[in-house]
């Protein structure tokens, strides 16, 4: 099939490259020429395991190419056959607006460009995470442009939310739990099914639903996952007070087949580009139709508090005034296998520690560049130092604080860690380190709801 993907961010690039592996012809469009130049040299704008090879192979076989505008993408594509429409994915950002709702300016700008340039029948697919009713807005914008051009073209707008987790996005694309397509148009249904059936093991994993239903599924799924995490974080806080081990509680709760074990890990709060933004956007969606989002507000409030968890434990142990103290921080990305630091718990922690007078020496296997720009002020003031090796963060530190659960931290030589630290204290913000081994080495181990 002929496919255009507008937006080569995280979602657009993964979508375009993965669709190209199944023999489709994909053109990715992005306004950022520097990004395109780098992509042409095989340099990816994001860190995602395995994606560089998929992009490279698809470019080599000429199934994937790049351009900086929709018009040239449309002219580069071979004409679609009479029974096949050109598929145009919109995968641009939906940043958070001032009131917490998703800002649609980029999505609607793409819709306008499509309406101004389209010459053939097409199916426009909303991949961006957008509020309920956005497909109608996109359709209206394209129709208005076509009307002004005085041409009639057969087109429709479909909702197809993404469920890609950073760090494992390729596996999520090639082995999805489900693919959701929102449409009531039989032609779109047929073509979207043909596009996606090669990606599912069983046909029922391809779920064709209503358009607004698809739009809401995305928000509801992410908000549900965020709810589970916030819920377990609250349970972990109760565990702390009773001296109960939350890991045992988690196993017992997750073993119930009605609940299941995934997304029940307590820690120092969730981050990333989706959960915080999507929970807030769903709050606004609910409020816009007069529903008081009591549960969602609580999920968000718990997460904000949870991001202070490590700092509160550190000040409980070392006192509120941290002048003269130094802390080693392991992990800056919002989760492992990504360099993404959006809404990362490390930001709240490092800002709080340095404001209280402490110095921080931090390490992350891939987020160092991102951290250098986010914390440029602290680095300049000498309050934060970034190291390439986790072991060199430890000398003279009053404690080690783990924020992101990178695998390599688990297998560190903890006897050496102990020898380097000023005091053998570990705050494990993800319950990730081998607690029993650390206790045998006489570390003071403070996890999240651990006994
Ligand atoms: C999420 C959704 O999972 C994905 O389907 C969606 O399309 C995009 O948003 P992502 O943000 O990449 O994916 O990360 P995810 O693995 O879901 O983790 C989000 C946050 O939750 C991370 O900060 C992670 O550390 C935290 N988390 C996750 C927990 O605190 N506990 C858990 O049990 C799981």
UniProtKB/TrEMBL annotation:
Entry-linked InterPro entries: 6-PGluconate_DH-like_C_sf, NAD(P)-bd_dom_sf, UDP-Glc/GDP-Man, UDP-Glc/GDP-Man_DH_C, UDP-Glc/GDP-Man_DH_C_sf, UDP-Glc/GDP-Man_DH_dimer, UDP-Glc/GDP-Man_DH_N, UDPglc_DH_bac
Transmembrane segments: none
Pfam families associated with the record: UDPG_MGDP_dh, UDPG_MGDP_dh_C, UDPG_MGDP_dh_N
Enzyme active site: 274
EC number: 1.1.1.22
Molecular function via GO: NAD binding; UDP-glucose 6-dehydrogenase activity
Protein name: UDP-glucose 6-dehydrogenase
Family according to the record: Belongs to the UDP-glucose/GDP-mannose dehydrogenase family.
Pathway(s) where this gene product acts: Nucleotide-sugar biosynthesis; UDP-alpha-D-glucuronate biosynthesis; UDP-alpha-D-glucuronate from UDP-alpha-D-glucose: step 1/1
Catalytic activity: UDP-alpha-D-glucose + 2 NAD(+) + H2O = UDP-alpha-D-glucuronate + 2 NADH + 3 H(+)
GO annotation, biological process: polysaccharide biosynthetic process; UDP-glucuronate biosynthetic process
Protein residues bound to NAD(+): 30, 35, 94, 129, 166, 277, 342
Coiled coil: none
Binding positions for substrate per the UniProt entry: 163-166, 218, 263-267, 271, 335
UDP-glucose/GDP-mannose dehydrogenase C-terminal domain boundaries: 328-435
Keywords: NAD, Oxidoreductase
């Amino acid at each position: 099939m002929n496919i255009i993907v507008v937006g080569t961010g995280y979602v657009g690039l993964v979508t375009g490259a993965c669709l190209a592996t199944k023999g489709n012809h994909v053109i990715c469009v992005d306004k950022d020429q520097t990004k395109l130049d780098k992509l042409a040299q095989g340099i990816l704008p994001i860190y995602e395991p395995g994606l560089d090879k998929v992009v490279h192979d698809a470019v080599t076989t000429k199934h994937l190419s790049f351009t900086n505008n929709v018009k040239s993408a449309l002219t580069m594509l071979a004409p679609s056959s009479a029974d096949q429409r050109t598929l145009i994915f919109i995968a641009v950002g939906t940043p958070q607006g001032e009131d917490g709702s998703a800002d649609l300016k980029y999505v609607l700008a793409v819709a306008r460009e499509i309406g101004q340039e389209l010459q053939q029948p097409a199916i426009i697919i909303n991949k961006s995470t957008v509020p309920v009713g956005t497909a109608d807005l996109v359709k209206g914008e394209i129709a208005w442009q076509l009307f002004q051009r005085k041409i009639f073209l057969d087109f429709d707008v479909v909702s197809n939310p993404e469920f890609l987790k950073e760090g494992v996005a390729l596996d999520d694309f090639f082995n999805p739990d489900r693919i959701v397509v929102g449409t009531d148009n039989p032609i779109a249904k047929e073509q979207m099914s043909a596009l996606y059936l090669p990606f599912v093991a069983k046909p029922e994993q391809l779920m064709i639903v209503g358009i607004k239903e698809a739009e809401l599924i995305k928000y509801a799924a992410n908000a549900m996952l965020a709810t589970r995490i916030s819920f377990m974080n609250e349970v972990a806080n109760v565990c702390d007070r009773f001296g109960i081990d939350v890991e045992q509680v988690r196993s017992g709760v997750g073993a119930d087949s009605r609940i299941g074990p995934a997304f029940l890990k307590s820690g120092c709060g969730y981050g990333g580009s989706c959960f915080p933004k999507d929970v807030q956007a769903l709050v606004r969606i609910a409020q816009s139709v007069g529903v008081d989002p009591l549960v969602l507000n609580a999920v968000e409030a718990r997460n904000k508090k949870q991001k202070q968890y490590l700092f509160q434990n550190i000040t409980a142990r070392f006192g509120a005034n941290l002048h003269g103290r130094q802390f080693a921080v392991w992990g800056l990305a919002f989760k492992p296998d990504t360099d993404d630091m959006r809404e990362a718990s490390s930001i709240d922690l490092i800002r709080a520690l340095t404001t209280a007078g402490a110095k921080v020496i931090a390490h992350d296997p891939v987020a160092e560049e991102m951290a250098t720009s986010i914390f440029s002020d602290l680095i300049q003031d000498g309050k934060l130092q970034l190291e390439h090796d986790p072991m060199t963060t430890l000398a003279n530190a009053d404690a080690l604080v783990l924020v992101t659960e990178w695998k390599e931290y688990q297998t560190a030589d903890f006897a050496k860690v102990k020898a380097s630290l000023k005091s053998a204290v570990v705050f494990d913000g993800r319950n990730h380190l081998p607690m029993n081994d650390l206790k045998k080495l006489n570390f003071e181990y403070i996890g999240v709801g651990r006994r």
